Structures are given as C-alpha cells and as structure tokens.
From TrEMBL:
Cellular component GO terms, alphabetical: cytosolic large ribosomal subunit
Protein name from the UniProt record: Large ribosomal subunit protein uL30
Alphabetical GO biological process terms: translation
InterPro entries (alphabetical): Ribo_uL30_ferredoxin-like_sf (IPR036919), Ribosomal_uL30_bac-type (IPR005996), Ribosomal_uL30_CS (IPR018038), Ribosomal_uL30_ferredoxin-like (IPR016082)
Annotated organism of origin: Arcticibacter tournemirensis
Amino acid sequence: MAKIRITQIKSVIDRSERQKRTMQALGLNKISQTVEVEATPAIIGMVRKINHLVAVESI
C-alpha cells in the first residue's frame, strides 16, 4: 500500500472538536509536525475532513 506524508500547516484553535480529534488521531499535535502513514481509505477520509489544515504528499 502507498504511504503519504501529512504535515500540519495551520492551528486547530477555533476549530470544531471533531477536527481537533481527527488531528490527534492522525498523530498531529503541533504546526509543522509531520507523520508518515499508509494511505488506507480511512486515513484518506480523515485527511479530506481536515484538508484545509494539512499538506499531503505521496511518498
């Protein structure tokens, strides 16, 4: 399965609780933090919900 690199580019301050929990579930806590995860349908769905807060690259 392909991997993707997700980087937090915006703060979660003043965002909904659902968006904050999605960021935590992906392992993102601070701006400029990066995680590498498998590109499963569940992860892709999570990224779509917070695409305005993160940058995504394929590896």
